[in-house]
Amino acid sequence: MNILIIGSSTGGPRVIFDIFTGIPAVPMAIVIVQHMPESTTSRFARRLAQLSSMDVIVPKGGEVLKHGSLYITPGDNHLIFKNNDTMVLEKSEKVNFVRPSVDVTMLSLSPDPRHSYYGIILSGMGSDGAQGLSYMKKIGAQVFIQDPDTCTIKSMPEAAFRLTDVDRVLSPEEIHNFIISIK
Amino acid sequence: MDPSTDPESSRSISGLMVVDDDEDILFTVHSLFRKRPFPVFLAHSGKECLDYLEKGFKGVILMDIMMPGLDGWETIQEIVNRDLMHDLIISMFTAKDVPDTTLDHLKEYVFDYITKPFEPENLIALVDDYITMLG
Description:
By secondary structure, chain A is α/β, with parallel strands linked by helices. Chain A has one domain: Methylesterase CheB, C-terminal domain (Rossmann fold, 3-Layer(aba) Sandwich). Chain A is built from 6 helices and 9 strands; from the N terminus they run βαβαββββαβαβαβα. Chain B is about 35% helix and about 20% strand. Chain B has 4 helices and 5 strands; from the N terminus they run βαβαβαββα. In chain B, α2 packs parallel to α3. The chains are: A alpha/beta, B alpha/beta. Chains A and B meet through α1 and α2 of A and β4 and α4 of B.
């Protein structure tokens, strides 16, 4: 299975809307970890369902990843993977001052010959996702950051770039094209 | 609509709130959005913003950072402390293009970061998008 984890914070939602506008149901399970309050999650998901043809789901815990689905991590929960394909929600301590934390989700994956992993860090404050993306690279993922010049706030992708030999630095349009190129 | 003269009109109404101590900014943003199909609320301070929220405001907030009294970050902290962070999209609205990283603990409550001066068309498109999202 193709599994893409997208980490995003301040300034990320508008990029995510641009990326997913017109995205068909691609053969990939995509998990978005967006720093946001719990009350915003369902509205964020509904907007993405309007913009893309993917099956947009806010997991409640226990769901198994499926191609063509876009999973929105609910605010105030960490999302971790069990057996690399089942999503579990946790209300454990905040990490990097946030819950959900991108690092927590990415670090919960393990090498798995059944899957091709991909990771992307978008606009945001701080450094959440830097360790996670570095770890994903070590377990064989292709990893990317949003081009800092296209970010509202650069610090998250720049922190990831400092820690990881990323495969590519992509503009939002290139991220869109990358997603629809997955066969 | 100028709700700043009628705070009670904000009860349970969704719209746009601009929080800024700069009267010119409030005037400009109000002018830009006055013909949109949602009300625009003007708050001159963090305290006034909190008053609107206590009266039931939901919607998009453009929050200046540097203000006398409560600054933008302190206002957001107070919004969180008072459990008013429901059905809100908050964007910082500031001349500072690099955020203060010591405020990392509030980043999950900040959806966006718009710098002044701004392109009117871009601001309108962004706010429209967020208003649509809140439905």
